[in-house]
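On clarity, I found the account of how folds are encoded harder to follow than it need be. What matters is that the chain and its backbone geometry are given together, residue for residue. The format is easy to grasp once an entry is in front of the reader. For illustration, here is how one protein appears when written out as sequence plus structure tokens.
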Amino acid sequence: MLVQINIQNFALIAAAELNFQPEFTVITGETGSGKSILLGALNLILGERADYGVIRNQAEKTAVEATFHIQGFGLESFFETHDLDYSEETIIRREISSQGKSRAFVNDTPVQLTILKELSEKLVHIHSQHDTLALKNNQFQMELLDVLADNTTLRASFKKTFSDWKKLTKKLADLKASYAKIVQEADYNQFQWEELNQLNLDQISYSNMETELNAVENMEEIKAGFASIVQYIGEERGITDLLSLLKSNLDKVKQLHPNLQSLSERIIATLIELKDISEEAEGQIETLEVDPKKQMELLEKMDQYNRVILKHQVKTQEDLILIFKELSNGQSNAENIEADIIQLEKEVEVLETKVQQGAKDLHDRRISNGPKVAKQLEEILTELKLENSVLKFDLEQLDKIDETGFSKLTLLFSPNMGMTPKPIEKAASGGELSRFMLALQLLLSAKKQLPTLLFDEIDTGVSGEVAQKIGNVLKRMGQQMQVLAITHLPQVAGKGTHHWKVEKTQSSDKTLTQVTVLTEAERVQEIARLMSGENINEAALANARALMN
């Protein structure tokens, strides 16, 4: 319920504090008095885009603040989802600066306009004449039928099952597409896997093989290297001959000085090492024989390895091992995906059966409850002076299913006796659509807790007894929820539990809009003015009292 609105520096309103009451409040005033300004201020709370032309004094900011009592609306999860502080008395605030900046707050927490709009739409609904266009929308008609036929729980359950089915169906399609791609690439991937498998990457070190091949290809140079060792160390006049001669000379004098003795021992050790080196080099020469067949095998393996390295655009054997593992996993994944597809197909089939059954249950309930809802609406329309109205929810079963089921709804309406019911958009005038929408709102208010409803001149185009009937319906709605109505009709104004008057006043060079809560006596005067204009006589006052009673 809307509790209070504070308006600062908005259009013709310098400052206003409006305290709202439950039940039915009427708002009257002369054309141009500023009733639309009130609507504009409320629209800011509803998250509409800011029009910076509404800033009355450009030196100050414009602010509109609304307080709502939200207990029982089930909004706790909304506040939790958007990280807002929940309070049964919730304050929504909009600020507009002259610099073109707009800010929104919920309980002093800054929020984006989309969040504000989503919240405020759950709290206030402004109904104007153009809203009757929604009656021509098939989706809106279906939702109305389900609410009025008590199908909301069944519909919500079906919607979830349908959503789960669609998600699972998409998952299955994606999985099949992945599997088809794997199958399509399977031959090529298998070829690559076999090519890598032949390299025995986990058993052969191709780095060592490259070294071995390099040695085979340079065998003559390697032999020459070992031969030069034997030649310079072991042959006549080689290093060992010269060192042996040196040793003999030192043997004659080494006892003369301790250092000569030490150096002589080191030369002996060197001779032994050099002879060992020469013998080992000579032994190596004997083993170095080139096996042409082995050389060819090494060459072929290294060529194969290098081709694969180049093909996969990598640099090391470790890189090839990773690719081999991925290809191996791909073969395993294909088997897993195939098993997953089989399982998902079973799950999709189960859910599809549930969806079909759920759609049938919804369709059957709509068919069985449609006439009851139509009868209830016809009774209210009779009260609104559409006595001969005929209403029918014409339902057809389609092959295609969506989140609402497989029902196709055509709302058929005839406002006059003897007229064949036609689709409502072709059969009803603007005034008839307004009364039809009012009848719907009355039924809806009895079915679920609706937000505050503000009717903006819903009674336009009617008068007399019809206007009085509309006033009666609005008053009945006010017994179940908070209803506000902007009206020019005394018959509607007379049914209000509370009455506000909007006036335009002038002082010096300023024009202001002010809102006054009328007393009973002031209400009589205002309703009499609506009937007879500014020249109010006793007859008009008597008629006003009669309307109020």
In short: The radius of gyration is 48 Å.
